[in-house]
């Protein structure tokens, strides 16, 4: 049958299209970032790869901080005695030391850990609350929605850093150890970001709940819980990876801001870049550059890396913003969009049939009905009361 | 291409307005490059309406857009499109133009009319400003002259009271008037060629007739050629002088309209014409032996499935607006195993009625009894059990399935909700039977909705609607988003299943020809009221109500000669009704 319409569609001998479309993507290729990496081309790919490399670099540093850092985050002396204060970079302290006698390199390496943990805590906390509230608010509407939107708007209208400071003071009274400090920063960041997730999810839910498949679920009598968990949740959270990455970078900035203002984590509890920057303010005027440059650079690079990933995910998610290679010349085959079935099984459908037959034992028997009209199956058989014993209905 | 070469070409093509030569277009997509059209050749003579027909995806729009090089960046073209101006003094190869030349050519030599008038007009500018914009872009400066031209063209396209309404905003016009304004925007620069991409698809059939008259006016009085893209064979028969049939990116046939309709050469054209629904053609489905499949019982004797008395549905108005009565005191009933056709134009309240029966819309007045449950003031808890007995088929096959669930999961949803099966895996066998019943292969179960074509999805939708063996099925425009050949198949399947299973059915549609193929009785709705309600044959053959008469007369027949007489009858009817 494939040869019959070879002349017209130029598709018969060209199985590339069929294969291209039909190859079931592996689970690996479906992962959020891997998928985008495969479709990206040109400068968009460059952006994404740069971002991913930066993020991966900091993740590795955070993971192996104990192995990489020569000293502890609060270490001011070793076997050979106390570290010199404000020493210039040397073989012993490759990025120098601070006024308090900390090793800058070790502080920056340990600080990566703090930053990554803070991101994870902040994003996890805000995403759960935000998504849940967004789903409820968007689907039910009414007064619940109005009140939640009002609260979200009120939080929006506060300067986020001020709000974070307030929360930090409330939770930890200003200063604290590693976990309580991270939690304090994490929760304060959470408060600021819940409204963002809430808004995004709510907008998606309001759009989706009008669509025919939600109506169709309602028409068959599906419960609200089923509609929310089965249909709305999965369909409304597709844009989340993008916001998630963008918010992570903001979370780092907020954490650093808190540390810089003195509401972060005690230097003896954990290394934190914002705090180090704060301490180095006076050094800068004295010509001591190394205490400020390295933590500052770390903040810039982490934020840059995450933002690059986020922005390129955002562009790649939108087919209108996604760059594509130019074809250069008129090539390719005509896609089998025809719905005119009397034409017979087209090449693409044959490919489907072959693949299905190979992968699915049920189809291995000659079901030539890929698109054909199957007279053999009568609806009356199906509706017949007695003769369809094992159909399992009722 | 050099100036010299253009002139040589021009001499060869003297006479025709446009000549499309070996046009191929391919697009770069995520899945590699796809050819949309290949080696397309046809000509557009002067002062002629050329109709381009073909199913969706056959490359009609891409071809038309290539004529003014309005293609996305990812497109690559080859071949040539020679477009000469009105006066026949020069010819351009459009595909070799760029930048300023292209801008000058667009609008002044070829203008485009799009499908959806609502999204073409900018809501923040007056229509006068938008008409003048084209003139300004082509160098007219004088404000008074601009305004005079805008008013003049509005009068010509039949906007009453043009002097005042030139300062109105788009939202102050109806859909049909908006399309007139869009056509006015195209005509104001007096281009030689008007490209109309499905100009009437978004409009009601009575408005469609008016817009087609206007396009005829563009040919006869403005002397322009019109390239009209449509999938409606009735529209082609009504307006086109020449027809180009496209199929899978190729032109399979071109010729005068009579030749295409009466002596189609290519087998695709023949099939396309055979699939077009025609008034008075009763659909008979046959089994394998060729015997017609009939219903086992006479629906007249069956009990009522739905009974409405003085049914009203009101949408509350916002702020100062008054409430909107979508359905205004209607009476009807549907017997078991009967097909009731509900016909009306957009805004007539037909969908609202269907949704009320399915419990998707609150009933605000009167009584609506569905399978023994009174819907006025019903609680979801009391109705839930009855939902298993009601199926619903939605209009848009694109959005009626959850895109993240497989076809099996989607079709099995009603079964799971009503606890017929515990999980999708258990229901798999039964879902497979359902898919085979709607003539889809079992293996489609594991596909995702976007991997199916529109017609296949609509069949799967029918399978889901019938999964619980409902005694009442509501079909809300189930075929209006489908191509003609697919529509024919879905209708045939629908009729077959209805005859075999014998469910009661409310078939909502705007297309009288479709409803005539299926329905036992027809109910015509207009502005929330039922204007006529009778046996299908009586309504089609002897319509009593003036609105029904107008609706029937406006429906273009897929036959050029008959349509000419039909059009004359519409004119008489409209004259008589005024």
TrEMBL record, chain A:
Parts forming coiled coils: none
Localization: Cell membrane
Domain ABC transmembrane type-1: 112-310
CDD domains: TM_PBP2
Keywords: Cell membrane, Membrane, Transmembrane, Transmembrane helix, Transport
Membrane-crossing residue ranges in chain numbering: 47-69, 115-140, 147-171, 177-198, 240-265, 288-310
GO biological process, any: transmembrane transport
GO cellular component terms given for this protein: plasma membrane
Gene3D superfamilies tied to this protein: MetI-like
Top-level lineage group: Bacteria
Cited InterPro entries: BP-dependent_transpt_permease (IPR050366), MetI-like (IPR000515), MetI-like_sf (IPR035906)
Entry membrane topology: Multi-pass membrane protein
Main subcellular location of this protein, as a coarse class: membrane
SUPFAM superfamilies assigned: MetI-like (SSF161098)
Family assignment from sequence similarity: Belongs to the binding-protein-dependent transport system permease family.
Protein name: Peptide ABC transporter permease
Organism whose genome encodes this protein: Bifidobacterium erythrocebi
Lineage, opening ranks: Bacteria, Bacillati, Actinomycetota, Actinomycetes, Bifidobacteriales
From TrEMBL, chain B:
Localization in the cell: Cell membrane
Gene Ontology terms: cellular component: plasma membrane
Any one biological process term the GO annotation gives: peptide transport
GO function terms (MF aspect): ATP binding; ATP hydrolysis activity
Residues annotated as signal peptide: none
InterPro entries linked: AAA+_ATPase, ABC_Ni/Peptide_Import, ABC_transporter-like_ATP-bd, ABC_transporter-like_CS, Oligopep_ABC_C, P-loop_NTPase
Protein biosynthesis keyword on record: no
Domain of life per record: Bacteria
Membrane topology according to the record: Peripheral membrane protein
Keywords assigned: ATP-binding, Cell membrane, Membrane, Nucleotide-binding, Transport
SMART domains in the cross-refs: AAA
Domain ABC transporter: 20-273, 306-552
NCBIfam families in alphabetical order: PRK11308.1 (NF008453)
Similarity comment text for this entry: Belongs to the ABC transporter superfamily.
PANTHER family given in the database record: DIPEPTIDE TRANSPORT ATP-BINDING PROTEIN DPPD, OLIGOPEPTIDE TRANSPORT ATP-BINDING PROTEIN APPD
Name of this chain's protein: ABC transporter ATP-binding component
Source species: Bifidobacterium erythrocebi
